[in-house]
Amino acid sequence: MRQVPRLYLITDRHATAGRPLPDVVAAALRGLAGGGLPPGRVAVQLREKDLPGRALTKLARELRAVTAAAGVALYINDRIDVALAVGADGVHLGGGSLDVAAAARVAGGLALAVSAHAPAEVATLRAVVGDWVTFALLGPIHDTPSKRAFGAPLGTAAVTAAARTGLPVVAVGGVGPAEVRDALAAGASGVACIRAVMAAPDPSLAVETFCKELNASAG
């Protein structure tokens, strides 16, 4: 069975204050050593929707090298072709992506993650294509600028409702280290973040702090 990430780092090269994205991700992953979270429970999602295929593939190859060196998984947002080309571990399907069943037919051995914005969507995924989906990324749980287009924050009650479907849920949206324990207590299998790490002055320390909270909530 595929490992569901306890910590899911989502990229945004526009949030790094001009630092090269591979450098920020490499620095972030160095925080695992101090945080005590096994690398196998961590994944990075390359989510740079504005990049054309050639540039995205180049960046994906760079991140594949960084993540492989750290022993963590790499997911590519939407682009199954890029994920296969660079030897990624999975593909993340957003709301406008290829149908999950169709994606599963062409994804080979890639793990499939799917975005959801309500517990009902997670329930549908579990009922219709649950055997193909490794986890659902549910959000926004709390207010965050990047997720305001998806409506009001869902709150942790939505995490509980979605987790009851049996499909593992990773909580995203305004989830920093201070929100980790509540998210896991509500039933999340893991948490995801973007700016809390990508924009952090010290990405390594940010990841270390996340990992310590995740370990404190282990059980």
Task: Please provide a written account of the structure.
- The chain has helices spanning 21-35, 53-70, 80-86, 100-106, 119-129, 156-163, 180-185, 195-198, 203-216, and strands at residues 7-10, 42-46, 73-77, 90-93, 111-116, 135-138, 169-171, 190-193.
- It is α/β, with parallel strands linked by helices and 219 residues long.
- It has a single domain (7-216), classed as Aldolase class I (TIM Barrel, Alpha-Beta Barrel).
- The protein has an eight-stranded parallel β-barrel, surrounded by six helices.
- Helix 1 packs parallel to helix 2.
- The longest helix is centred in the N-terminal third of the chain and has 18 residues, at 53-70.
Summarize the structure.
Helix 6 links the parallel strand 6 and strand 7.
